[in-house]
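Action item from last week, closing it out:
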Amino acid sequence: MKTNILLCLLILSFNLLFGQKIKFKPLTTKEGLTNNSVKDLISDKDGRLWIATWDGLNIYDGNRISSFKHQQNNPLSIAGNIIIRFQKDKNDTIWMLTNNKSISIYKGNGVFKNYYLENQPKDITLSKTGYLVIIYEKTFFRLDKGKLIPINESEIENSDSIAPLEKYLLKKHTALVINDVLKDDEGNIWYATRKNGLYIIPNTTDNVDNNRIDHYIYDQYSPYSFTSNEIEKLYQDDFGNIWLGHKDGGVSMAYKNSEKITTIIPHPLNFPHLPNETIRAITKDSESKIWLGYYTKGLFFFSNKTKCFLPYTISEAKNNDDLNRIRSLYTDSSGTIWVGTYAGIIRIDKKGYKLYNAEIINAFPDNRNYAFYEDAQKQLWIACWGGLAKFNLTNNAFETYKYQEQLTSFNIRHFIIEEDLIAIATEEKGVLFFDKQKGVIKQITTNEGILGNSIYNIYYDKKTKYYWIATLGGVSIYNLEKGIIKNITEKEGLPSHMVYGLLPNNDKIWISTTKGVAFINKLNYNVSSLSPDQGWQAEEFSEGAAYQDQKGMLYFGGINGLSYLQPNVYNQPNYLPKLKIVINDDENFGSVLKKEYTDNSLTISINSIEFSNTKSPVFYKLEGIDSSWIRLDDDKIFYENIPSGTYNFFTKIRDFEHTKKNVFQLHIEKPFYKTLLFYLSVLVICCLLITLFILRKNIVSKKHQKELENKIIKRTTIIENQKKNLVEVNRNLEEKNKEILNQKETVLALHHQIKNKDFEVDKFKTFVLSSFKPKLSKMLAQIQQLEKTAVSNLLHLETIGLVQLISEWDYLNQVKDLGSLKPSQIHFKNFITNLYEQVHSEKTTTKAVFKYVNNTDTDIIQMDVLRFRLLFQYLLNDILKFTEDNDELTVTCELTLNTILLKVETTSYLLEEEWHNIQQFSPNYKAAEILLNDLEGKLSRTNASSFELSVNIPIKTFLKEEPAFGKVILKHLYQKENISKEIPVTLVLCKEEDANLVYQLVKHDDFQLVFEHDIQSMYSAIQNLAVQSFILYNIPFTHECEQLLKHHKVQQFPVIYIAEQVDFIFEEQALDAGINTVIHLPVSVDFIHKKIMALIHQYQSQYQSKIAILRNNLEKKPILNLQEKIVKQGMEIIKNQLGNSEFNVDKLITALEISRTKCYRVFKKVMHQSPSDIIMNLRLQKAEQLLVLGHLNISEISFECGFNDPKYFSRLFKKHFDESPKSFQKRKTNNDIL
């Protein structure tokens, strides 16, 4: 007996030391079980695990546990709570024997069918034909339709005897009490004991004599131990998992293949010295001992003497904790171990250790070291947090090398060496390629396509010459000649986007991440994730803690310890999950579902049954509704308003076609109005109505017959008189014939005049404009007086549309009056893209494609923007009018050094047919010809077989955009002095890309222009500047715009709106909102100037005298109310205190001598901003100006703008401007260089 116990303890200690143990996942009441004592286990046809407890039935589907208990006064609930046995018959029906003389089966949807017996059965089993058999002491009964039918014992199915299997274990452990025995699919024999845990006899070639017996008991310190040594039941489910049913311990699942993963974690008995901390480095010495480097707890090695990990003591670490912060481990060719820390390098050999410190070694860049690599020349290269060091192993000294200074600004995490080329992984600066003879030859970042700039590991595949790069955003595969080969992210199956380690094995690359381990197939880049349920140290692994020894063993360190495996013998489980599907909360749905048209919605619940945290993707498709397969992201699928018809619902797993399954067929009935009964009803009603109509018609006919007889007499008299009149009419007709002949001659004369078509078109336009315009205006006025109805509103809209169309003709004539060319500089790409989207969205729904090609170094060009805009609109308008929905339209704009090439291609047959008429008669085309002539451009048909139009326009390109002279863009608080008080100020609100165009249209010596591009800046401008007129150019008429126009200061000066399109509805809305006039383009510049000056003089004549009198009475001071005076005083204080870091809202309140509430309310009413927002915005504006100047660094600018903390300033600046101060300054500097 003592010998057996000693042998058992030796086997157990071996397993504990080397970790080759099966790991278990417990399920107890904490996870949702109704009771921790389990009697039986079984799987249903859907793969779910049924758990019989002493307090009800539990069903586990891998995600959640559903429980069922007996309910008083509910005959549809389970008959009893203590379930003794499960038995599955040939129809996959699971029968449950309870302790209260009853048997139950589950019918689905929470309903049970119960059979109550007179006596308590001893057990239940199956007959040879697969039916349920109830066993009493010496009698056997078959349950048939609720009745017990006696049968002979010979009819019972013979169950496999476990007695022979018990003998294997009882030979060596005679005192054991075995509760259950299971032989799994691989031939391993599992033994469940009453008090001694679990025994397993492995079925391996080295255990044919069954001498090796693995023993597992409850370990309170292990996260992968089961929870009770008393095991009642063993069961293997449909996926090959072994389940243990405990008494007072719930259920435990043995992880598949977990015995092939060795895990070392802190344990008070097995590994008492290991700290509970993250492992950051791993290596093996020349004696194959494992060395581990911890985050802050130093260095540990495996002692063959104590069979435990022991700390390696560095005496200097007592005074310098950074020596215990291990970041890298490496074993060189001589067996020496190199340790990278935060305080330099530790060199360990059999004689002891030696320290290297960068503070006393010139060729050693930094004490923080992340990687080592020994090349073929016995040179040890070291990755430092500030460069790359080289140590000569022959001379035992650090040496400098060519171009070493190029790497001092880079924080290096990892590197690899291939001949003379070193690939270097950096922090936030991508990958460097360093040639030993040439220095840095290339740097790749996210701009070149890799997934992140923070690089953790690099692997070079010599066969493909591909670099595998582990980044913060995933894995990138790169080739020096081809560039990016492949990017692999979480979308492609990575467990996490943060990849730390890359280890090769045959045709796979193994990776460690923050969410587990996976491997990538080199051939097709498919990602296979390993389930975290297989006994890893934890789900999260750490940077630098990935190592491969000479035998190919893979080691991964993480937050809880170390896990390692031999990848060549590891087999990824390939079980496909089963699907539990519920339709409209019904588990028992049929293969064909029929629904009325009024009930045409569908709710489908799909639950993937698999007992692993790594879930297989499931796809579904309702054929006829879904055009392609859809990945299941949620348990429930909703379909609403399904049309009538027949549909099939399919599922498949992992995109495997052989798993495709037709779950059910759905048939939605036709609505009543589409049925034959409806048509017959309509026919009968119509026949009845026709019959009634005929009867009524006959009655009415008889009544009128008498009346007609009287009328005939009167008509006869009238006919006689008409005969006389016809003679007179004939005579008049002869005279009309003569007139017709004269008109024919006139028509012939007009036909000859058609030769001069332009003359005739102009006469027709003049006739339409003079004849129709006044009449349409009168008609529009009369329609507006009608009562507001749907008909009157439709007439109003149609009439306005006709007026706009006629008015557009009138405006087209004014393109001749645009004056001389007004070139301005623009960014052409944004301009042409916005212009195309505007024209296309307004005119048609045609499927059009817009292409932009830039063959220059810049897209800054000089051209007459207004003429080009109108030319583009007029030309494209005519083309779109004759392009139908099914036609294809391609608009290509190519920018070269001196020209703009605009090419239009379409498949429109109608446009091809009508193009000649467009050229002859279209007002838009005529206007486009005038504009094209002004721009010195050319228009031609480049393809006779299909419609292809080409327009060439000469332009000038510039490498640097120069601001237009005279255009003032202000930060209103600082630059008031730049505004002349003698010349009226005109405030312009427009889009930023339209600023140069508006400047060319509006500039004049009689007034100054101030441009703004957002509503909030307008409030500041009108508050701080002496504005005398206000121009809006092509701005959408939003609620914020209406509120601005209602501002009391805006109502003190004229407001002009310049529109590119004729829209009388919009013009009416604008005038109602307070805009004085609307100017439609095209129009001459002189007209705009005269209109603005006339409105300014008109307002001055109305208000100037009153203002002058008020100013004289108030000692020539501006009239400000009390709130405006407070704001003005406050703005001056803010302006003077912007550089004071201690200045804030409290100091402002103190200076103004008002309360906080009043200060906030006054600033919010006058400036539409809170005081704190104004202070912060003005400081950031000042910072923006200083960054553009470029003579101060970031810290100096932050202090100059009142920020004590440069980091806080940088975060605030990035939030406000969407880029950091450094990037902003660099971009502005690069633009100036260009």
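Closing note: Residues 179 and 1173 are 75 Å apart (CA to CA).
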